[in-house]
Amino acid sequence: MRQNLPRVPKERIAVLIGAKGATRRQLEQQAGCKRLVIDSDSGDISVEWPETGEFDPVKALKLPDVIKAIGRGMSPEKAMQLLQDDWFFEIVDLRNFVGKRQNQLRRVRSRLIGSKGRIRRMIESLTGCEISIYNSTVVIVGDELGLAFARQSVEMIASGSEHGTVLSMLEKGRKRQRIEMRSLDAIETVEETPSGEVSFAELVPGLDRVAAARKLKAAQVNTEDEEEVEEVMWLSDDEEIAWEEE
């Protein structure tokens, strides 16, 4: 089965192929396809898949996004993380915020990257995503929750929000996420007695086994033998009887 993939800019074809075809082979292996066909002149890409049932259809759906991410400036190693089931792809067009003027696009790109890449690294760190800024687009890959926060951050900065405001939003979101992760995913309940109250045996682990063993031992005692009766009534060091009025 042959599938056409997104076209790659000519300046990114060499990156997609890799040294002596290493990146292409790695893509083929990770995606489980037979062959990745790359036209180095036009940038057209296609892929040949094995017979139905011999490859992962989810990876077939995700491979076009991997190619898009690489074509938009992301390193192949980072882009291939998209082949994971719980990683997704987003692309933000900066022209939607500042138009097509090159000076405005440069200004927004600079704000998104920050001094020595600091702002981009902080957004990646706080969201767990990978971000690539290329020409007029921003490519983001990550899990569902991180992706939503990262996209919101990019759009806020592109709209003129201060870096401090954006980073504060991310910090608060991260704290909420930590709290949610610490909360119990499920609560184990115990069966209640008919009266609606939990029995004492259920509150003391192992008590039912001890009681059953004592009951069995008592059933084997000759009630006419005083020594046997006294032995079964004898309490061990870790046992005691407490009396109280109801």
Please, could you describe this protein's structure?
There is one protein chain. This protein has 246 residues and is mainly alpha-helical. It has two domains: 84 residues, K Homology domain, type 1 (Ribosomal Protein S8, Chain: A, domain 1), CATH 3.30.1370; 98 residues, 2-Layer Sandwich (Ribosomal Protein S8, Chain: A, domain 1), CATH 3.30.1370.10. The chain contains twelve helices and six strands. The strands form two sheets. A three-stranded antiparallel beta sheet has the order 1-3-2, covered by helices on one side. Strands 4-6-5 form a three-stranded antiparallel beta sheet, sandwiched between helices.
Question: How would you briefly describe this protein structure?
Answer:
This protein is mainly α and 246 residues long.
How many domain modules? 2
- Gross CATH architecture of the largest domain: 2-Layer Sandwich
The SSE string, one letter per element, is EHHEEHHEHHHEEHHHHH
Derived from helix and strand composition plus strand pairing, the structural class reads: mainly alpha
Helix % is 40-55%
Average pLDDT score? 83
Question: What's the total number of strands?
Answer: 6
- Proportion of residues in extended strands: 5-15%
So what's the CATH class of the largest domain?
Answer: Alpha Beta
Shape call: flat
